[in-house]
Amino acid sequence: MNADATGTVSSITETHCPYCALQCGMGLRRRPGASGGLEVVPRETFPVNRGALCGKGQNAPAVLDPAARLTSPLVRDTRGGPLRPASWPEALDRVAAGLAAARDRHGPDAVGVFGGGGLTNEKAYALGKFARVVLRTSQIDYNGRFCMSSAAAAGTRAFGLDRGLPFPLADIPHTGCLILVGANPAETMPPFVRYLTELRANGGTLIVVDPRRTRTAELADLHLAPRPGTDLALALGLLHLVVAEGRTDEAYIAQRTSGWPAARAAAMAHWPELVERVTGVPLPALREAVRLFCAPEAAMVLTARGPEQQSKGTDTVGAWIDLCLATGRPGRPYSGYGCLTGQGNGQGGREHGQKADQLPGYRSLTDPAARAHVAAVWGVDPADLPGPGRSAYELLDALGRDTPDGVRALLLMGSNPVVSAPRAAHVEERIRALDFLAVCDVVASETALLADVVLPVTQWAEETGTLTSLEGRVLLRRKAVDPPPGCRSDLAVLNGLAARLGHATGFPADAAEVFEELRRASAGGRADYAGISHERIAADDGVFWPCPSPEHPGTPRLFLDRFATPDGRARFAGVEHRPSAEEPCAEYPLLLTTGRVLAQYQSGAQTRRVPELNAAAPGPFVQLHPRLAARLGVAEGDRLAVESRRGRAVAPARIGAGIREDTVFMPFHWPGAGRANTVTNPALDPTSRMPEFKVCAVRVTRLGGED
């Protein structure tokens, strides 16, 4: 039962965790006592997590506390002056005026919109529509570009369709071998680990590819620790061995694929001894990985940010897909390629229009038929829709530029790029250079504190909306409690801004009404939600897209009969290894890779406000191997400076053997001196426009007490 008019919860409200893309089911109810807040209770019937939650999910209600979040609009009266509380009418008037001034003075593309992978499907859809219909700008993208854009590009190139997992999570324990590439779900999505333990209990094997011996790697039958930035060479070396040892599935290749001769030739140019030198993975381990992967009838490869957040991420994922295709895995039971989506709605967030080049339903913005369909739903002329805009980092880099194509005003919703973007100090400079910045957020994030107007918005337990999990399951997040009086939903914000900018209709504040329009806009697209309703989701524990009609059962497993390409065949990538954008040198002799820790999430803007989580992970650190520490004269806990060509981050040393000797690791959840993304490289993948977060050249220096 949902909240009544007073916000009192009389029974358990079934909903979903606000954090990662597993979207674990949970229940919420009021704690005993007149002033009791919400508490989490297990939702054991939800199939994905069966009641299990990580610490982040268990402590999720803490951010609902008014003391931990924004509860009133804030405005800044003078440039550089303090933020002060304001009324909603004043705040919305200021945002509308700021966006309109930039548009009127410099043109529509002087206004930018930056969204987030945690927004509900309804919000992502409405934000994309607002940018293109109200603002008429092409300059919209979102932080999901930093999540799985390389996997999406590679999956679309190979299969004609991208969905994080083309099969349900329940298939994983039944495969014979699973290769996890650059994924650490034991810390990033702990309830996922049960699928790994069940896989091994069923007799399957687990191979983990990671330069660190993570908690996930500790579970593996085989751990491959390649040098950061060499995952592409590793995949090609494995494919070379598959060919050389006669392990290809020639019948499958002939019947269901195209492009094999070029892919085969590319693989044969990456002989195992070369791959051993490039990656640092011993040849016997390469041969053992091929044996484990090819022996069973069914096998899978799942990638995550490790291989994807590279300047060659699309080709890297493409090479792992080629390994799957050559061995006949995709489109067969308990087999294939998939991507472990990161953000809570990283999948749905890019399907419905907040990505620079896409319209709702995963339609291309350059496709005349797609433009015509969506324009008809929106009641506008297709010619009035702008074309594709800049990708996320390119958009952030254009902020505040006094050039004809500079972005002078920005509406930002659900993201914290001051901490999360690559070359973060530079991004902060660009944000500070804007003529006007408006931020919609739940908490006073580092980016929100730079804004001219801050709008406090509702969050997961205070609103109803849909999200799409990493397995393509569309879910219903239900309202459990009323928000503080000073907060409004993002949809209400867009409704108010649209009205002030001349669009009195077309932007409802009700999520159910927005979803009904989304269904029509997505109809016939690759991500077709036309047959999905709130009622169906509630009755079935979610519905897998595509689901083109109310009678359609949904599609838990894709590609069983054909791939989504024009000829129904999967396409080999046929790629070759190339170096990372930045290799070590005498001045910067080490490699930095970044990632997450168990108790924090993304930029940490919310989790750093939860005492239990902060106690478990209170700050950043630099992980390095004991032999490297000895060479540098570093002891456990010493303050280290990690420097690249872009900047410096400072954090204490954490010494252990679970990392390569040529590599250091930093988590990226913290601002200030320990802001890891000050150091990272914004070099972009030419296809996905993904920045190279996962590898850059650095030097590490022990600091004295005066530093």
What's the layout of helices and strands?
Elements (H helix, E strand, L loop, with lengths): L12 E4 L8 E6 L7 E5 L12 H4 L15 E3 L6 E3 L2 H19 L4 E5 L5 H14 L5 E3 L2 H15 L17 E5 L3 H4 L4 H9 L3 E5 L12 E3 L6 H14 L5 H7 E2 L1 H9 L3 H8 L3 H12 L4 E5 L1 H4 L4 H14 L9 E4 L6 H6 L6 E2 L3 E2 L3 H11 L13 H6 L11 E5 L3 H4 L3 H9 L3 E6 L11 E4 L8 E4 L4 E5 L12 H11 L10 H12 L11 H7 L2 E2 L25 E2 L18 E6 L15 H6 L5 E3 L1 H7 L6 E5 L4 E8 L7 E5 L13 E4 L6 E2 L3 E7 L5
Parallel strand pairs: 6-7, 6-16, 8-9, 8-12, 9-10, 11-22, 12-13, 16-17, 17-18, 23-27, 24-26
Antiparallel strand pairs: 1-2, 2-3, 4-5, 4-18, 14-15, 19-20, 20-21, 23-30, 25-26, 25-30, 28-29
Helix pairs in contact: 2-19, 3-19, 3-20, 4-13, 7-9, 7-10, 7-11, 7-13, 15-20
Walk me through the structure.
The protein contains 23 helices and 30 strands. The chain is α/β, with parallel strands linked by helices. The strands form 8 sheets. It has a 7-stranded mixed sheet, with helices on one face. Strand 4 (74-76) and strand 5 form a beta hairpin. Helix 2 packs across helix 19 (490-500) and helix 7 packs across helix 9 (260-268). The chain is globular, with a radius of gyration of 24 Å. The protein starts with 12 loop residues before the first strand and ends in a 5-residue tail after the last strand. The model is unreliable at 1-9 (pLDDT under 50).
